[in-house]
Amino acid sequence: MPLFSETTCKKCHTRLRISENEMSITGGKEKESARCPKCNNIVDEAMTNGFWEVTQIYD
Ligand SMILES: [Zn+2]
């Protein structure tokens, strides 16, 4: 299962790739927000062991 997904920001319509970065330390799952790097809009919210890394996709 790949630890990334692609989405489009609903606010500025930038194509984004969301990667999950898992941390090796066990800290329990927390709900983390993935934010658009361009306009700071929340594009996804999910439980993760680590944090979301959001990068812009350039064609
Ligand atoms: Zn945006």
How is the largest sheet built, in terms of strand order? 1-2-5
Output the radius of gyration: 12 Å
Number of domains: 1
CA distance, first residue to last residue: 24 Å
Percent of residues in β-strands: over 45%
Q: Which structural category do the helix and sheet elements fall into?
A: mainly beta
The number of strands is 5
Biggest sheet character: 3 strands, antiparallel
Q: What's the arrangement of secondary structure elements?
A:
Blueprint: E1 4-8, E2 15-21, E3 30-35, E4 42-48, E5 51-56
The protein binds zinc ion.
Zinc ion binds next to loops.
Question: What is the structure about, briefly put?
Answer:
The protein is an all-beta fold. It has one domain (4-56).
What does this structure look like?
The chain is mostly beta strands and 59 residues long. It has one domain (4-56). It has strands spanning 4-8, 15-21, 30-35, 42-48, 51-56. The chain is elongated. The structure holds zinc ion (ZN). Zinc ion (ZN) is lined by residues 9, 11-12, 14, 36, 38-39, 41. Residues 9, 11-12, 14, 36, 38-39, 41 line the site of zinc ion.
